[in-house]
Amino acid sequence: MIARHIPNALTVARMLLAWPIVWALAREQYGLTLALFAVAGFSDGVDGFLARRYGWHSRLGSILDPLSDKVLLVAAFLSLGYLGHLPVWLVVAVLGRDVIIVTGALVYHAFFEPVTMEPTLISKLNTVCQIVLVLATVMSLGFVNVAPLIMGALVVLVGVTTVSSGVAYVWIWTRRAQSVARKRGAGD
User: Fold this and answer.
1) Phi (first) and psi of residue 157, to 5 degrees
2) For 14-49, how does the pLDDT look when each residue is reduced to its tens digit (9 = 90+)?
3) Which is nearest to 17 in space by CA: 2, 29, 1, 35?
4) In the chain, is it the N or the C terminus that has fewer CB atoms within a 10 Å radius of its CB?
């Protein structure tokens, strides 16, 4: 393997951790679940460091890295929702947002121009909130009882940032599509 491919290899390996995480959650192996999340977090840091330090950036990496995070979070949300540890409405909101974003990106790419991955600030906040909620839920299940008020606040925070992030993406990309369409119309 060429050294510059190491960040992408780590990203793919991180994505593959989704299955053992689902398995560990289904078997109530919460220590293993947290350990797998720690490995995922560490590999995310290492691949980011290598890409920045050595300039090993690639278009594939810019797609795979956020996709890997999404795969892990979606797997965790689906598992925790299915097991009754997260509200169904929240799982539907999180998945719905992702489906809307992916569908919008595919439509934009097909009809306007290539999509560049540009996470918004609210999207980054949403990702952090989702991670905190998943970790708090797993911690509460296996180690320490997180106060219901805190868990409820995290659920609401994830719900609000999920909807806000989804609306922001729709707004931004709709405006970009309109701008591209206007430029094309002016060029005719």
Assistant:
1) -60, -45
2) 999 999 999 999 999 999 999 999 999 999 889 888
3) 35
4) C
CATH code where residue 65 lies: 1.20.120.1760
The reported pLDDT for the residue numbered 53 is 87
Q: Of 8, 143, 138, 110, nearest to 64 (Cα)? A: 8
Tokens 């970009």, located at residue:
176
Torsion sign across C-alpha atoms 136, 142, 146, 150: positive
- Could you list the residue range(s) of the whole structural domain that residue 14 is in? 3-187
The CA radius of gyration of the chain, in Å to the nearest whole number, is 18
Average confidence score pLDDT of the chain: 91
Nearest to 169 by CA among 114, 118, 106, 107: 118
Q: What is the DSSP letter of 86?
A: S
